[in-house]
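Thread: Newbie trying to understand structure tokens

Hi all, I'm a second-year student working on a class project, and my supervisor (Dr. K.) asked me to get a predicted structure for one chain before our next meeting. I've only ever worked with sequences, so writing a 3D structure as a token string is new to me. If someone could post the tokens and maybe explain what I'm looking at, I'd be very grateful. Here's the chain:
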Amino acid sequence: MTLPPGFTHLELSRLVRNAATRVPDKDALVCGKRKLSYRQLIARSNRVANAVRGSLQIEPGQRVALVTANRLEYFELVLGLADIGAVAVTVNPGSSVAELNGILADCSARLVVIDPALKTLCEAVAAAGLPCITFGSEYEDWISQSSAVQVATPVPEWASFCICYTSGTTGRPKGVQLPHRSRVLTVLAMGVEYACFGMNDRFLAVAPLFHGAGFAFALAAISFGGTCFLQESFDAAALPEQLLAADITGVFMVPTHFSRLFALPGAQLDRLSASHRLRTVISNAAALPAAMKEASISCFGEGILHETYGSTEAGVVTNMRPDHILRYPGSVGTPFIATEVEVRGEGGELCIPGEIGELFSRSPYSFIGYLNRPEDTANTLHDNWVTVGDLASRDENGYLTILGRKKDMVISGGVNIYPGEIETVISRIPGVIESAVVGLPSPEWGEALHAFVVLDDAANVSEANVVAACRQELSSYKVPKAVTLLSELPKNPSGKVLKNQLRERYAQG
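---
Reply by user tm_fold:
Sure, no problem. This is what the structure looks like when written as tokens:
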């Protein structure tokens, strides 16, 4: 793509480099007792770029897999790779050997940088015969031998910045290719929408960096000169003190994090409520139950909580801003900045308000296709509109409600039933933390609705109570035929409920 004179391609590393010219000696990243200033981050990113290009001769477009929990080196690696047009492949450190091998083969990884504590995965990489560098002394020796001076490499903005693999809840994980352009525009829009990524902000990253949203929010924090604090892995017990001690102004969490935070002793939450400096709390990845919204507002105050909906493929699609978070309790808000949204019926026609259909979005934040999966790409990209198979409805004011995945729709007695509608009702029962409704095989109904419900420790709620609450608000055919109380729901690392596991586990019972 040729740009007019005076314009440059959009590259995320330029945002961070610009921040470094403004506040070079300020802390960019903090993880425990370790810190990196902006000056140090840029120098180390340059060393990564020169090491990858020099000793390993990795070329633009080739892929480097990162397999680790949250750590400072994640950022210097991704930025250094991006500077030379190489592509970071972010891998879940909790992957099995089979999953890791599948991803490394799919992306044709030229190098794996991995946490040495992941011994089984390290052995798998060695067995595959791939070049491998472990964090620690080996990694430090490797980058120290390269120059800290940047050697500029033009990188087209449509080139892949990173590849995030989907969670595999519907089958084999797919590599989502995210270009420089969409990542830059995502970060700039986040800076406007969430108001917690300025130069004086201090953002806490508790979500895993291998996940698209977790990494995007963390990158936004250092793209404008703020400071990003990292938790190596989520620790609910340590969260209140970290929010207070570091004067955190913004944090992104998934519903599981909220649940664990608000299960802490009251004294900890009272101190947090009285002393926090938060201006923005962002929820994403799955629907935030009404009880968690109310607990968040009780703890942090009004005007702080955002609920965002999106996908790795489409980026941020909607945002429910704080002023309406309780007014529209089941909604995920209105379209995000520069985003168009349509709800379409089976024939592609636009749905009228209140009608349920498939959600499509179009924005500058989209992916450019799945790696090596042209058929899956064609099923997701329709004339530049993106769909991941989510079902939704839109009210007269434009507020969207997600009703679940197309694949999760239950057909019982020949009638289409949308589990999200039932889960919303169950979430309003006092004492319910979360729920998942699935269809299980039934000789009478074809599929019978089965609700799996997680309660807080103090709740006095029975299976019959859940059924009764549903009967009060729902048509009879939408009332679950059975309810099972669980201590927790199966989830992937990004916090999404694995309904396929529930179906498989309970189908025979």
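A couple of things are worth pointing out once you decode it. The chain has a mean pLDDT of 92. The longest strand covers residues 432-442. Feel free to ask follow-ups in this thread.
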